[in-house]
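Example complex used in Figure S2.
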Amino acid sequence: MTLKETPSQTAGPYVHIGCTPNVTGITSVYRADPGATMKTGPVKGREITVTGAVHDGMGQVLRDAMVEIWQADGDGLFRSAQETRGDADPNFTGWGRSAGDMDTGEFRFETVMPGAVPTADGRMQAPHITFWIVARGINTGLQTRMYFPDEAAANDADPLLARIEHRARVATLIARRDGAEAYRFDIYLQGPDETVFLDI
Amino acid sequence: MADTPRLAGYIARDAGQHPAALHPAYKTSVKRSPQAALLSFPSGPGEETGPVFGHDMLGPLDHDLIHNFAADGRSAIGPRIVVQGRVIDQSGRPVPGALLEVWQANAGGRYRHKKEGYLAPLDPDFGGCGRVITDAEGRYEFRTVQPGPYPWPNGVNDWRPAHIHFSVFGAGFAQRLITQMYFEGDPLIWRCPIVGAIADPEAVRRLIAPLDMDRSLPMDARAYSFDIVLRGRRQTLFENRMEGL
Ligand SMILES: [Fe+2]
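Predicted assembly (445 residues):
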């Protein structure tokens, strides 16, 4: 018998108390906020920075969101007990969490360029980073992916991007270059540029 | 070659068991809810793996909100409770090693947060965050004080039922979940627009923790039980059929 999943509820305006307490000034409980550092030593591959913000349907930036990313290492392997394809870079966690800047709402991740990862049935996907966004007013966490603007050929062959019916929306999943080894990814909850969110 | 049962992709989320993205009675959802359909895609390695959290990340008081912010020799004010339960997946299998992060208001309904303006006082001995990692059977337990209900700016007189927020990591990132636990018997549950975003009352009931006297600690704390079900994976038929079967 298949049980029913526990329902989601909004993370609310105080998600940072539980997930990044040090950012909120609760500094005596946890040594460090989980996910604040993705690199724990010298990492394999290209080191990159990813910044961005989450925008509501009125074009305003959310200042109470929490954004998490999950990605493969430079060789396309995940640092996870469930990874069956090989041993990932021991100095790279693959998981980052950002409370966003309390004034500007901008998130920032110091990470590495992910290697390509296949689908479950063995088709190669373009390099990408999984994003998960929660905030007040978001009743179930939103999952999406960031792809890279300098991987056009791989993006053209990517099986998930190929499933997007309205082709103009593919662009909502592609970051833009923002300087050397830096990318910017803006997430739009609504409006003409609404980001493609995933049921995956 | 032996028959090998194999885990396939994650079972798709049942939207009917979750809150609607757009629930106008919860006003903030109006401009923060995506309007296009979600893009469905089978899970793969990126969703079936997830970050690893070891017990070594936990401090000795991480699971004790009564004491983890309190000055030496002091404790948080409010009704003392134990919250405990199991994390399992949709197949009923325990999820060991799951990180649960919890946060809540104090016994007066006040959060320790600079954007919070409710007139109920802060408790100098209560921070409001804690965390725990499930054991081999998927069990967890933490201690805290029962949070108070609090008013919030939505309608002119909306009050949140008493609740504890939970953030949960399973084995795969596809299982990532944030939810809220409510307390048996709270009349505010059925008046709350955030709860009301879930259309199915049976689904709401799975967020309501019953009082569990058998697990209560006499002369110390009452207990509430809250089991969490994360997404499960489909199981494929046996991959390698033996000859003659
Ligand atoms: Fe709350």
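The pocket of fe (ii) ion is lined by residues A 12, 14; B 160, 163, 165 (CB under 6 Å). The domain at 15-188 of chain A is CATH 2.60.130.10 (Protocatechuate 3,4-Dioxygenase, subunit A).
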